[in-house]
Write a structure and sequence with these properties.
The protein is α+β, with helices and mostly antiparallel strands. The protein is built from 11 helices and 11 strands. It has helices at about 1-10, 20-45, 55-60, 75-90, 90-110, 115-125, 235-270, 285-310, 315-340, 355-365, 370-380; strands at about 65-70, 70, 130-135, 150-155, 155-170, 175-180, 185-190, 200, 215-225, 275, 275-280. Strands 4-5-9-8 form a 4-stranded antiparallel beta sheet, with helices on one face. A 3-stranded mixed beta sheet has the order 3-6-7. It is globular, with a radius of gyration of 21 Å. The mean pLDDT is about 95. The structure holds 3-thiaglutaryl-CoA (TGC). 3-thiaglutaryl-CoA binds near residues 99, 132 and 133. 3-thiaglutaryl-CoA binds next to helix 5, strand 3, strand 5, helix 7 and helix 11.
């Protein structure tokens, strides 16, 4: 099979510890048995299977890198390997794990009070409570510093007004981490989604991420007590630190989607015959396969190096930009090349290739576009910010 051929060339799994392989195996099994059987029809029907959330929690995948509060306290590499396995089936489910664990739970774990952590994290880890992370606004996501959503203090309460867009899970979430401009900076607020004035509406018409939910949020005079404000977050460093976590998962996840495509390309290269020989016997096809292999292996090694740095506590946001920019870009290229090897079949839903390609286009834009990550690297290299 394509998977065996990949393993023969390069045994990536041998670079993982037993514990990391254990997480990888459990995620692969979950994705194979619980998500894969229905993903094509779910994508087609725009169906998000919320009933899987408690199962993901019971398996320990939600907020798995967080220590305490019912979370598994796993390594960054273990978490990355899990992201790759989910995204090998569909980016929508890796996105779910990212939004819940890397964004909403991370925000609470990093910046919340003990009381906030005790109240929210155990239920979120168990998949009994769903969170979302409301940062991006309708006018664009690249410059959160320009946010117009405000939170104004009135006695012991905060009153939040504004709008958010592209917020994963908001219509099924129990709690939203809402980022808003305050008199003294940027604040994060834990808003139960049944609070008066909070409305989440799923965005329709998406041709990517159809098996997951992204929403518009309206915030009209939403009142929360002062105890709902995250005490540790006062500047953009707050939400950006959470984006680092989600971007980290994407670095691995994108390579999962790439792997699925490459496996399919390898199988087709052996099975399809033209001009009396397999298409894999043609030098043009071999060049495509070899190029895909190079980028896949480099992407996995990059993910692993970044993961090891994260576990060692030395990872920088600039390194995360290297990984996100490179791995999503190369995963899309691998999906496109696979499509060309599949010929006409590649555009049908008999194969998941166009689904991965469409999903990856969304992944390419969220959590920092190619352009933003390019300019973050440009700033790191030149010392000059193109944003200012
Ligand atoms: P800048 O002046 O560079 O920094 C402002 C403050 O933030 C700190 N900071 C970071 N901290 C941690 N990690 C990072 N990666 C950080 N980047 C910046 C910085 O140290 C400073 O802190 P402080 O305390 O000194 O004030 O800010 P800037 O406005 O010039 O930033 C420029 C830029 C482009 C890097 C930043 O705006 C950026 O990353 N933009 C892209 C944002 C993005 O990725 N948006 C998409 C989010 S996806 C989404 O919202 C949907 S949620 C997912 C879902 O629901 O599905």
């Amino acid at each position: 099979t394509g998977r065996d051929a990949l393993r023969d060339v390069f045994d990536f799994d041998a670079l993982l510890s037993e514990e990391e392989r254990g997480w990888q195996d459990r995620a692969r099994e979950f994705a194979r048995t619980r998500i894969a059987p229905t993903i094509e029809e779910d994508f087609e029907a725009k169906r998000f299977r919320a009933e899987l959330i408690p199962e993901l929690g019971a398996a320990g995948f939600l907020g798995m890198h967080i220590r305490g509060y019912g979370c598994a306290g796993a390594s960054a590499v273990s978490y990355g390997a899990v992201c790759a396995e989910f995204e090998a089936v569909d980016s929508g489910w890796r996105t779910f794990v990212s939004v819940q664990g890397s964004l909403a739970m991370s925000a609470i774990a990093k910046f919340g009070s003990e009381e906030q952590k005790d109240r929210w994290l155990p239920g979120m880890a168990a998949g009994e409570t769903v969170g979302c992370f409301a940062l991006t606004e309708p006018d664009g996501g690249s410059d959160p510093g320009a946010m117009t959503t405000t939170a104004r203090r009135e006695g012991d309460e905060w009153v939040i007004d504004g709008a958010k867009r592209w917020i994963g899970l908001a219509s099924v979430a129990d709690v939203a981490v809402v980022w808003a401009r305050t008199e003294d900076g940027i604040g994060g607020f834990l808003v139960p989604t049944d609070t008066a004035g909070f409305t989440a509406t799923p965005i329709d018409g998406k041709l990517a991420m159809r098996a997951s939910i992204q929403c518009d949020i309206a915030l009209d005079g939403v009142r929360v007590p002062d105890s709902a404000r995250l005490p540790g977050a006062t500047t953009l460093r707050g939400p950006f630190s959470c984006l680092n976590e989600a971007r980290y998962g994407i670095i691995w996840g994108a390579m999962g989607a790439a792997r699925s495509c490459l496996e399919i390309a390898l199988e087709r290269a052996r099975a399809r015959t033209v001009f009396g020989k397999s298409i894999g016997a043609f030098q043009l096809t071999q060049e495509k396969l070899a190029t895909m292999l190079l980028e896949y292996e480099k992407g996995m090694l990059l993910a692993l190096a970044i993961g090891r740095s994260k576990d060692a506590g030395t990872l920088s946001p600039t390194q995360i930009s290297v990984g996100k920019l490179n791995n999503v870009r190369e995963a899309i290229e691998i999906a496109r090349t696979t499509r060309s090897i599949l010929g006409g079949d590649g555009v049908t839903n008999e194969f998941p290739v166009m689904r991965h390609m469409a999903n990856l286009e969304a992944v390419r834009t969220y959590e920092g576009t190619d352009e933003i990550h390019t300019l973050i690297l440009g700033r790191a290299l030149t010392g000059v910010s193109a944003f200012a």
